[in-house]
Predict the 3D structure of the following.
Amino acid sequence: GTFQEELPDVPPVYGIKRPARTYNPIVINFQHLGLMIIDAWQTKHLWDKLRIWFMPTGWRPEDVAQLNPVNTIEDVYQYEKFTPYISSKALKLHFLNLFSLLIVIYFFFGHIADFSSYGLMSFGVFFFLQIYSASELLNGRSIGLWLGVLTSILGLYLCLFLFPKNLNQWALITYSIFLSWMLLQLIVIAYTFYSGGFNHRIAPKN
């Protein structure tokens, strides 16, 4: 019931009325489910607790909609787009993270049989935190730096204690890149944070 034919006298604008103001893929995928869970918990009516899971997109119980309103775009031609400012230092750190993460992920899937169950779970947590950290850097939020510190410490632990033994030449190169990446990330994060090269603001509208 949401389809709208294009009108000849109205310029079309494509998108959703409640866009995700984040680049974090984890938040994007689960924020709407999270809102439904909160609404189902907070509504006082049992019928609303049940039917919220089957109602059309955007429907909310009336009592929680008044108690906890969600911002929506009312004027599609005049609204502030999500464009966080990121310093060049933080942006370079972000690309360094993604490039290094890609190398380690390729190694991980190529040697997945060499890891213990504990090692698999630990690397899974590491990948999760690193992606979360990198996306929060793109959001212009300082939590990305603090998560970067946490993932660096976890990464050093993985290097020292959970990396497979008897590595071949290419695996040793990957190991060296991974270890260097974790040490470098700690140094860059410390420099970026304490030099004031990371400040969050939204770019002004054109």
